Amino acid sequence: MWTTVLSEGLRVGGLISLWMLIVMVASLRWNPEIWVNDYPPEIRRVLPSKSERARRQTLWVSIPTFIVLIGLQAWLVVRLYAAAGGFPGFWELAAAIWLAMQTFNLFDLLIVDWLLVETWRPSFVLMPGTEAFAHRRFYGFHFRGFLKGFVGITVLSLIVAGGITLVSWLT
Fold this sequence. Notes:
Blueprint: H1 2-30, H2 41-46, H3 52-84, H4 90-120, H5 139-170
Helix pairs in contact: 1-3, 1-4, 3-4, 4-5
């Protein structure tokens, strides 16, 4: 079963990473202001608050994004149930969910944040008015975000696996 946990967790993590890369690049190209709250504090201080237009666009991006993310996680759970021939076990569920999300968390840090945003830094990731920061790199800021994600994903994976386990016991 643990081989399935590993393979399915990595498969779904890869799909999540691909989906999120598409969402992030497309929405940054559409309007980088959608992501203004995710910029480092030094940059946020020189930017105006998120406009009403960007707030609406954030919802237009966020809702379908989270629907797909929840769907991918549900697909992962269904595949684990199928592989186990029933309830796969609390730790198996927690580990697969954790692995899928941590795969994206690591991809986000290394490929999106460090490579795309900080190293390549294409023009579509730069907000107007942030030209003074063109020489600055914020690798530490992104790493701290990764660590926060690591802890949050660990806790969330245990909670979700616990909820699924509870439902399984009650049915």
